[in-house]
Design a protein that fits this description.
The complex is a heterodimer of chains A (about 450) and B (about 80).
Chain A: H1 2-6, H2 14-37, H3 48-78, H4 85-109, H5 112-137, H6 145-173, H7 179-211, H8 218-241, H9 244-270, H10 279-303, H11 313-348, H12 359-362, H13 365-387, H14 389-437
Helix pairs in contact in A: 2-3, 2-4, 2-14, 3-4, 3-11, 4-5, 5-6, 6-7, 6-8, 7-8, 7-9, 7-11, 8-9, 9-10, 10-11, 10-13, 11-13, 11-14, 13-14
Chain B: E1 9-11, H1 19-30, E2 36-41, H2 46-54, E3 59-63, E4 69-74
Parallel strand pairs in B: 1-2
Antiparallel strand pairs in B: 2-4, 3-4
């Protein structure tokens, strides 16, 4: 085990942990914003509070965890180590955290200077990560679908960030841009080409590893990442050429491909050998069901565009896809990654003869299960709020804030217990050295 | 468990980490010079690859249609 870790080129714990510990705070902030802004958030996707809320979740929560996870797992799943991971993590984390806050403030206040500064910080954060990751990840030979997925996801990240910066600067300067088409495309790059591809690449490794499911069959695993990226590129071409029919077609095909992947993942989850349902398996099951719902809605909207006239359609779709699918998948992954990482770093400090650390004590299962239940209740209220916003918007916001805060509290507790055990291990080892010396 | 490629097989497809690594290192210790062992996993074990390279073991991996990686390791 010692050999495994010391040769693992694992980055220092502080590199990924800063992303994992600050991300839930943005979920909490999103909940608080909903509680304060109330039902108007559900009235239109273009309202300042709605734009701020969505980006607190997508940048503050999702992007932070995804980049933190990538910094951690690249050596393990792709054999690629980022240079100076701690310095990179510090810079990217600061740029994304402050950038997400300024972007939300910029949307809420309509301040052009805030939007410009947010766009600059987010571009610097994502750009620094891509500049560090691309030279080490892209030359890797794609010996597995995971490596191919990781490589392609970096182009997805570049695409969503590039479009996002252009849109933010466009709003700040009052440029005449086709905002609805570009905003849809920005979401397509972010959720399909970046988050969707990265999620699949990680699921190929993490589901069999932590949930003891069968592996993903090779052929669809190879094809899924390039298919998603290819479809988003085709969608971009359709927007550039002004062909709305091709846009609709690519959106429909993305829905079908996503449904196939989600269905396959559900089948693998049912075959898992770790039969006991823990917080992660609950989060993932909820996420998969929400993804099925969201993708079915996307498919329906491409076949019958008239359905989107229903006022609850867009909020329902966004809540299912973001809060239902992606946030649930990521929270479930956090509950596997954070205890595993802290346990692994404690193992590294182990000396023969000292008591071995216990992973369950680092993050007890009941605390995770209760928090997961609170989040799923918040999700149910959010879905209800899409239909009856005046009744449920504020309660949903309060519960979302509580569930986000609770997630933060659980992860912080793990970091705290890690610190205590690390200090105890260092003390025991010093004591033994002194005894041996004396 | 045996396999057409070698009788020495660690089927780690439903094992949680770090068991696949530990079992592989244990089996490598029991092999005679010239013998090979096969590790079956649903992922590519890059940390193990680094240890194998450092210890001078040759290995090759193949992805099967069902998602299994067959990693053939020489003593």
């Amino acid at each position: 085990m010692q050999a495994l870790i010391s040769l693992d080129n694992a980055p220092p714990l502080a590199a990924p942990l800063r992303f994992f510990l600050s991300a839930p705070l943005f979920l909490m902030l999103a909940g608080l914003l909903l509680a304060v802004a109330g039902p108007e958030v559900f009235a239109s996707r273009w309202l300042p509070a709605t734009l701020a809320l969505v980006h607190l979740v997508t940048i503050g929560f999702m992007l932070q965890v995804m980049i933190g996870a990538m910094i951690q797992v690249l050596p393990v799943v792709a054999g690629a180590s980022l240079p100076r991971p701690l310095a990179l993590a510090r810079f990217v984390h600061a740029a994304l955290s402050v950038g997400a806050l300024l972007l939300a403030a910029g949307f809420l206040s309509g301040g052009a200077a805030l939007l410009r500064l947010a766009a600059l910080l987010l571009a610097l954060g994502v750009g620094a990560f891509l500049l560090a990751a691309m030279p080490v990840v892209l030359p890797q030979v794609s010996t597995s679908p995971t490596i191919r997925g990781l490589k392609l996801s970096l182009f997805g990240l570049a695409g969503v960030a590039g479009l996002g910066v252009a849109l933010a600067l466009g709003l700040a300067h009052g440029w005449r841009l086709p905002y609805p088409e570009l905003a849809d495309l920005h979401a397509g790059w972010g959720l399909a080409a970046w988050a969707g591809v990265l999620l699949a690449a990680m699921a190929y490794v993490m589901m069999p590893m932590f949930q003891l499911t069968p592996g993903y069959p090779a052929r669809p695993s190879w094809w899924y990442p390039p298919l998603l990226l290819g479809l988003v590129l085709l969608w971009s071409l359709a927007v550039a050429l002004g062909w709305p029919l091709l846009t609709r077609l690519t959106q429909g095909m993305l829905a079908v491909v996503g449904l196939a992947f989600t269905g396959l993942t559900l089948r693998l989850q049912r075959q898992r050998r770790r039969a006991r349902a823990d917080a992660t398996s609950r989060y993932w099951l909820a996420g998969l069901c929400a993804a099925l719902g969201a993708l079915a809605m996307l498919a329906a909207a491409t076949l019958w565009p008239a359905v989107t006239v229903w006022p609850a359609w867009t909020p329902l779709f966004a809540i299912l896809l973001l809060a239902g699918a992606f946030v649930s998948f990521i929270a479930g992954m956090l509950y596997k990654i954070v205890p595993f990482l802290t346990w692994m770093h404690l193992q590294l400090k182990m000396q023969p003869g000292l008591p071995a650390p216990n992973m369950n004590r680092l993050l007890p299962d009941p605390a995770m299960r209760r928090q997961a239940l609170s989040y799923l209740m918040a999700l149910a209220l959010l879905l209800g709020a899409a239909v009856a916003p005046s009744w449920l918007a504020r309660p949903a916001g309060i519960l979302l804030a509580l569930a986000g805060g609770w997630l933060w509290w659980n992860l912080l507790g793990t970091a705290w217990r890690y610190r205590l055990q690390a200090i105890a291990l260092a003390g025991a080892s010093d004591e033994r050295a002194q005894r041996a010396g004396g | 468990m045996t396999h057409p490629k070698t009788p020495h097989v660690v089927d780690a497809r439903y094992m949680a980490p770090p068991e696949p690594f530990v079992r592989t290192m244990e089996m490598l210790d029991t092999l005679q010079p010239g013998e090979k062992m096969l590790l079956l996993l649903f992922r590519e074990p890059h940390p193990l690859y680094r240890v194998l390279r450092q210890n001078g073991h040759a290995f090759e991996s193949e992805l099967l249609p069902d998602g299994t990686f067959e990693i053939l390791i020489s003593r």
